[in-house]
Amino acid sequence: MTILEIKDLMVFYENAIAINNVHLACRRGEVTGVFGANSAGKSTLMYTISGIILDVKKKEKMRGGERITVLGSILYESKDIMAVEASERARMGIVLCPERRRIFQESTVLENLKIGGILAKREQGKKTMEYVFNLFPHLRNLKKREGGFLSGGEQQMLAIGRALMAQPKLLLLDEPLLGLSPLMEEILAVAVKNINSQTGITTLISEQYARPILPIIHYGYVLENGSAVLEGTSEELTDNPDVKSAYFGL
Ligand code: ATP
After folding, report:
1. pLDDT per residue over 80-132, tens digit each?
2. What is the whole-number distance in angstroms between the Cα of residue 154 and the centre of ligand 1?
């Protein structure tokens, strides 16, 4: 069963097309991957699903800047959410862990997590925090450290932990492995897999390089210049000879 279904999605920044007629579905309880090079449209897709694109659009309008147009439909739990504000979508369970972490640099690890859990019930928050520290035991020793003093990998752990604190039903991870070492990529890919298998949270993850993520996804899409040019199960994508060298560096 799908929790998210995107149909005929088009996003324009002024006259430039960033998402071109994309159809995509996330099945409940699965990890779905979106792969694509720089500028393929991954972040725009994440912004559009989380609703942040509506805020960007408003800001641009106030500044008299570029016109952002979003067309098509996004069904979440069978409800059309195209006009629903980002904050409301977060309450409905769509939680974005943005590209480049964006943690609060001057707040400690503990504070970052508490901020993430601001909408959660007290007991829920406590339970999730314990889960985050079990998922990333390394973070437990860094509770009092300010975000800005963490390494890139630690910041990414914190960003994922903060997103989990918001009690997602659909977790959006925008390039969580960006700029990390192969070892840290592996640790985080395993963590994403564990989140999914242990909590059942549906996950949509975008990455430029598919290799570390392919083993943990159930289904994936390849974006090229805003269009979904290819899709399939993890095995289908891995085995497709045409895409191996072009997209996956295999
Ligand atoms: P990256 O890996 O570099 O983050 P991406 O796949 O996330 O790339 P997007 O950031 O979604 O791609 O960008 C898709 C296209 O839309 C690009 O051509 C980009 O230049 C353009 N774009 C993105 N944001 C804006 C904006 N605010 N105004 C104008 N064009 C934009």
Report:
1. 999 999 999 999 999 999 988 788 989 999 999 999 998 888 899 999 999 99
2. 26
Q: What is the distance between the alpha carbons of residues 233 and 199, in angstroms, rounded to a whole number? A: 21
For a ligand 1 pocket test, name from 44, 60, 66 the mutation site with the most ligand atoms within 8 angstroms of its C-beta: 44
pLDDT number for residue 134: 97
Q: Which residues contact 70 (CB under 8 A, 6 or more apart)?
A: 9, 10, 11, 48, 53, 54, 57, 82
123-180, pLDDT tens digit by residue? 999 999 999 999 999 999 999 999 999 999 999 999 999 999 999 999 999 999 999 9
The alpha carbon of 108 and the centre of ligand 1 are apart by a number of angstroms equal to: 31
Q: What is the pTM of this model?
A: 0.94
In the predicted structure, residue 36 carries a pLDDT above the cut 80: yes
Backbone angles phi, psi at 117, to 5 degrees: -95, 20
Measured CA to CA, the distance from residue 240 to residue 177 in angstroms comes to 24
CA distance 92 to 133: 25
